[in-house]
Amino acid sequence: MKEGEAAAFRTDWLENRVDAQQLGLDITNTYGSWPYFADKMEERFKDSFEKETAKNEILTLRQGNETAQAFFERFEEKKRWVGYTNRINEEFLISLLRRNMNKPLVDRVIYGGHIPRDYQEWKRELIRIDYIWREREKEKKGSDTGKKPYSEQKKEGEKKKDRTGYTYTGSGERMEVDKAKFRTEGRCYRCGEKGHRSFECKDAQKRKPQFNVREEKLLEGF
Question: Which residues pair with 174 in a beta bridge?
Fold first, then answer.
């Protein structure tokens, strides 16, 4: 206890003890007691320790994912512990806000057309813009709700059946297995009857092709 706050505590302790003895006070349970000494020491250094801790914490306090409102609740709690005031430490506090709050948010305030003049104005603008941004994000997410992912939409159209029981793919074309069956049985791709090919079909103009016309041409030689 030779320097700083510890030396000051030692001096005060000894002086108070001497004063008590000169007044004829019983110091058995006070300045002659270890528990009393420990209590006084904790009382003296507790606030000093918490103040130093708050000083370090306010320097490294970051906004992260929390709202600006929540950040300021923590920031101002540390500010009170340290003893910073808006009047005396204003420039330093503003520099901490610009450094420790999320950069996109700070940039919106700076380039919004009006740079805040003091700490309180910075606080109001940061909270206001942060709130507006978060509400817009909620609206965007809400507008996307109910839309099915492309993969799900694709799956829904992958297999369908018509009244004849034939299975179609998502593009409305019959599956390859049905085409192979027609080819094996010698059926016309247009009318489904046996005995002729699709290019020989007499009802070609009246009947709807059984398969996609483009693919039908590719299969015509089989």
Answer: 168
DSSP for 149-167, written as a single string: PHHHHHHHTT-EE-TT--E
* Whole-Å CA distances, 150 to 132, 167, 175: 31, 22, 22
pLDDT tens string, the chain, 222 residues long: the values are 555 566 766 677 677 777 777 777 777 767 677 777 777 766 666 667 777 888 899 999 999 999 999 999 999 999 988 889 888 899 999 999 999 999 999 999 999 888 999 999 999 999 999 999 999 999 988 876 656 665 665 555 555 555 544 444 544 444 455 666 777 777 776 777 777 777 677 765 666 555 554 444 444 443
> Could you state, in order of their start, the residue ranges of all structural domains in the chain?
4-144, 154-219
Q: What is the pTM of this model?
A: 0.48
